[in-house]
Design a protein that fits this description.
Number of strands: 0
Number of helices: 10
Order of helices and strands: HHHHHHHHHH
Radius of gyration: 19 Å
Strand content: under 5%
CATH architecture of the largest domain: Orthogonal Bundle
Number of domains: 2
CATH superfamily of the largest domain: Tetracycline Repressor, domain 2
CATH topology of the largest domain: Tetracycline Repressor, domain 2
Length: 207
């Protein structure tokens, strides 16, 4: 999901390490606010207070609330790379590969917390929802078997995205039992075959 470049990347203010710490504090506070309070309930002043910085500093780094939203809902680079690796996995193993990368991401707090906020924000924020659609298309569509035409490939990628998102919401965000407590290997055994069918198998008797 593309993001505008914050002003901090275009001009200097203080030691580089301090800028990184400040930016992280601001985006972390913004991420939590957008996820919990939505667009209307988030202000740059409130974000500054939560981050423990002066509100002028938030405006210094970000031109607008839109830019702050983009920066705070940027998927972690490690997660992007993990998904981009999937097309290089043998086709018959890609369903499992996707699920194992999801499990890996959600066992790492530094990735999990960002992804959780992005999903919660996308639930009620159109700008983030549009970016999330583009992100899923860019990362999951290449994993679908290449012999299908474009409409079917898009459908299959959407089915994978729906399955993965549903598992994430039920297991890690809402923590609904019994799915929340099954082992990782049980989860793989239950879900990976369905993902694999969406990627390369028969969807209906006519497909």
């Amino acid at each position: 999901m593309p993001s505008q470049t914050p002003k901090s990347a275009r001009r200097s203010r203080g030691p580089r390490d301090d800028r990184g710490v400040t930016l992280n504090a601001i985006t972390t506070a913004a991420r939590g606010s957008f996820a919990e309070n939505g667009w209307a309930g988030t202000t740059m002043r409130a974000v500054a207070k939560s981050a423990g910085v002066d509100s002028a500093l938030v405006h210094y780094y970000f031109d607008s609330k839109e830019q702050l939203l983009d920066a705070s809902t940027m998927p972690p680079a490690e997660w992007v790379v993990a998904l981009q690796e999937i097309p290089s996995v043998p086709l018959r193993e890609r369903g499992e590969a996707i699920l194992r990368r999801v499990i890996w991401a959600w066992t790492r707090p530094e990735i999990r917390d960002v992804l959780r906020s992005i999903l919660l924000t996308a639930a009620h924020e159109q700008r983030t929802r549009q970016k999330l659609r583009g992100f899923f298309a860019a990362t999951l569509l290449p994993a679908v078997a290449g012999q299908f035409d474009e409409p079917e490939r898009n459908l299959r990628a959407s089915l994978v995205a729906a399955q993965v998102s549903g598992v994430i919401m039920i297991r890690w965000i809402w923590e609904i039992e019994p799915l929340a407590s099954v082992t990782d290997e049980q989860l793989v055994a239950l879900i990976a075959p369905t993902l694999q069918r969406y990627l390369s198998g028969r969807l209906t008797e006519r497909s």
